[in-house]
Amino acid sequence: MEVGFYTSKREYLEKKNEFQRAIENVLENGIQTLGKEVKELEKAVEEFSGAKHAIGVASGTDALVIASDIMGFKDGKEVITSPFTFLASTSCIAKHGGKPVFVDIDEETFNIDTTKIEERVTKNTVGILPIHLFCQMANMDHIMEYAKKYNLYVLEDAAEAFGMKWKGNGESYRTAGTIGDMGIYSFFPTKTLGGYGDGGMITTNNDELAELTKIYRVHGAKQKYHYDYIGYNSRLDTMQASILLVKMKYISEAIEKREVINNWYRDRLKDIEYIKLPKIKGDQKPVYYVFNILCEKRDELNKYLKENGIGTSIYYPIPLHLQKCFSYLGYKEGDFPVAEKACKEVLALPIYPEITEDEVEYVCKKIREFYQK
Ligand SMILES: *Cc1c(COP(=O)(O)O)cnc(C)c1O
User: Fold this and answer.
1) Which of 21, 34, 171, 247 is the most buried if burial means most Cβ atoms within 10 Å?
2) Which residues touch 166 (CB under 8 Å, ≥6 apart)?
3) In the CATH hierarchy, which fold is given to the domain comprising 9-103+110-248?
């Protein structure tokens, strides 16, 4: 049996007619940048997330760079974040000369250890950039409390967190990307809401930040050819938006399906003593974008699964503070032991709405087999 880490082909076959109609409509309407499908998708994401504004851009990475630029994460200012993430969560700070200040992660959630944020705040700190990784959100109660106390901006990297919700000690659940000053989503193909290419979105409840975002995504011009800022060319593509609109119709179903698959894995893996399953912390509603386990002999297990036709992924093999591109920040091995240890033990198993129970069964059987050898 072959179990791919991800494939879009099953979804395409299921919704072939809808995807084709969506694309044909774009072609028939004639070439448009920021066409009507982009506006419709922005509206759909606003409704789904509860964000006052959702603004489509070219990728999650661009969304982070643009939001960082607008909020002044630059010119030597410090932003507190975690080193256990995808490059883009930190490069957006460094890109315009801001200084990423790392703190370690929580052992169980892989998200920023919010109890360590306050000790890193200095008079140069301007923001906190939490990343909601894999299946759950960082502790937004703590983050918003520090932001208020020290007057900091919060940019939520919700690239992986589409549909996750945080209640914490609050009165109601709020969606990832709508709690801080700005949030971002990625529509990279594997993401919970993934396109057939690149795309991203910036969310905010602040009218002024929304206005600036719309200006920045088209070269910094409020009026064509009148440049108030040095902006970007970062539009969400109309064709991608048309595909994403089809997928938005089924997003709740897709999220529920991920939950079911998560349970298939949990039931079959819970008694294997060599692995740890994801644990949800705080009052929140997870979305199983990634099913990540911590395991003994990770590299051998990974090799064994690959030999048996099973696709896996390692998020993330090297923490950002040990990456060559950030060596100028002066961090060294041992600075963030929890993140460093996670990099050696994490393994992501295949999870996407169309995977079957038989396939999950096969993956789990092979994991069990490996530890019984
Ligand atoms: C995917 C991802 C991004 C980048 O999104 P792209 O759309 O691929 O540019 C940023 N941060 C995190 C945590 C991600 O997982």
Assistant:
1) 247
2) 137, 140, 173, 174, 176, 179, 282, 283, 284
3) Aspartate Aminotransferase; domain 2 (3.40.640)
